[in-house]
TrEMBL record:
Note accompanying the cofactor annotation: Binds 2 Zn(2+) or Co(2+) ions per subunit.
PANTHER family: ACETYLORNITHINE DEACETYLASE (PTHR43808), N-ACETYL-L-CITRULLINE DEACETYLASE (PTHR43808:SF31)
Residues that hold Zn(2+) 2 according to the record: D106, E141, H366
InterPro entries: ArgE/DapE_CS, Bact_exopeptidase_dim_dom, DapE_proteobac, Peptidase_M20, Peptidase_M20_dimer, Peptidase_M20A
GO function terms (MF aspect): acetylornithine deacetylase activity; cobalt ion binding; succinyl-diaminopimelate desuccinylase activity; zinc ion binding
An example Gene Ontology biological process: diaminopimelate biosynthetic process
Organism: Rhizobium meliloti (Ensifer meliloti)
Tree of life domain: Bacteria
PROSITE patterns: ARGE_DAPE_CPG2_1, ARGE_DAPE_CPG2_2
Protein's name according to its UniProt entry: Succinyl-diaminopimelate desuccinylase
Length: 397
């Protein structure tokens, strides 16, 4: 029996407690849905020392011709205080036209709808005129080390090539059809540490307070703004996320102070050019004697977090128009083409093929009582089904 009902598909996935990094039975449930539709399924375990082993899934149906990938994740964030939920978080309970459960919108719902859409397409038209694949990770909500990156490498090493990808993350702010993500800002994080000289607060001339310098360095990171934005992206924005001294004594000048930061940046920058700008700002601030009169430049070091996320913008008209047209055909809305929000696994997929993102309404993702309207599941399935037909039509033209 083909899995054409997104509600049943989602219920089966929610009932699997796949809190990252646990597989929780979710990939097994997905494999059971895909096999009857003609998909060959591979379960791929990725490993790296110091990180949990992650089970992922790659499934493909079809042979030669255009190859469309659907990408997503079955792992979910922890439920938090389970007693605060009005329904058990892995029960897939339905109340007043909504299904409750962790992962309902982020993003088991998107997977459930795409499975239903493919099943309906095959039921009506037979096998696709090309190939469809599912690239599903169990490590999107975790460190993203043993997930999409390694699954893409594994598939590419086997000769897999893709012409386009749709990621089913919840992209819509308010209603299905509001927004398609056609790119993402980059993300760069680091930590600066200022080294001072510990001493007695009553004898500051014998010490060198690093707190004075860390304040100047933090201000230099946030002001002035990095840019005013670009045609397709918001202004780059840096936030200092913590300042740490670790000093419990009020009469002791500490020996060092540190601050962590994250910047979401647009296409005016590369990660490398942004690093150079940040270092230049820090060097100027370190030499500023406003809070440290008569002192030599502050001594600081910076450590960059591994693997910055690079900014990207998808310009593939066939992919964007196929999805936009499907949204408008089903909902009557013209979706906004956006690059807002955080990062997703699309940042890895863009190195292999053009990628866009479209899924459910994200209002309740990661919240207590995460839930999705059953009507939205049907609407999204209709959009996905229409998109599949339109994309293969474009690709074959």
């Amino acid at each position: 029996m083909f899995p054409t009902d997104p509600v049943s598909n989602l219920a089966a996935l929610i009932r699997c407690p796949s809190v990252t990094p646990a597989e929780g039975g979710a990939l097994a449930a997905l494999e059971a849905m895909l096999a009857p539709v003609g998909f060959k399924v591979d379960r791929v375990v990725a490993k790296e020392p110091g990180t949990p082993d992650i089970e992922n899934l790659y499934a493909r149906t079809g042979g030669e011709g255009p190859h469309l990938m659907f990408a997503g994740h079955t792992d979910v964030v922890p439920v938090g205080d389970e007693a605060a939920w009005s329904r058990p978080p892995f029960s897939a309970a339905i109340a007043e036209g909504e299904m409750y459960g962790r992962g309902a919108v982020d993003m088991k719902g998107g997977i459930a709808c795409f499975v239903a859409a493919v099943a309906r397409h095959v039921e009506k038209h037979g096998a696709p005129k090309g190939s469809i694949s599912f690239l599903i990770t169990g490590d999107e909500e975790g460190p993203a080390i043993n997930g999409t990156v390694k699954l893409l490498e594994w598939a590419a090493a086997r000769g897999e090539r893709w012409d386009a990808c749709l990621v089913g993350e919840p992209t819509n702010p308010d209603c299905i059809g509001d927004m398609i993500k056609i790119g993402r800002r980059g993300s760069l994080s680091g930590r600066i540490t200022v080294h001072g000289v510990q001493g007695h607060a009553a004898y500051p001339h014998l010490a060198d307070n690093p707190v004075r310098s860390i304040l100047q360095l933090a201000q230099a990171l946030m002001d002035p703004p990095f840019d005013d934005g670009t045609e397709n992206f918001q202004p780059s924005n840096l936030e200092v996320t913590t300042i740490d001294v670790g000093n419990t004594a009020v009469n002791v000048i500490p020996a060092k102070a540190s601050a962590a930061f994250n910047i979401r940046f647009n296409d005016r920058w590369t990660a490398e050019s942004l690093m150079a700008e940040i270092v230049a700002r820090l060097d100027r601030a370190a030499a500023d004697s406003a809070l440290r009169p008569g002192r030599a430049p502050a001594r600081y070091e910076i450590v960059w977090n591994e693997r910055p996320s690079h900014v990207f913008l998808t310009r593939n008209n066939a992919l964007i128009e196929s999805l936009s047209g499907a949204v408008e055909a089903v909902t009557g809305r013209q979706p906004q083409l956006s690059t807002t929000g955080g990062t997703s696994d699309a940042r890895f997929i863009k190195d292999y093929c053009p990628v866009v993102e479209f899924g459910l309404v994200g209002k309740t993702m990661h919240m207590v009582d995460e839930r999705v309207a059953l009507a939205d599941l049907e609407t999204l399935t209709g959009i996905y089904e229409t998109f599949i037909a339109r994309w293969f039509g474009h690709a074959a033209a």
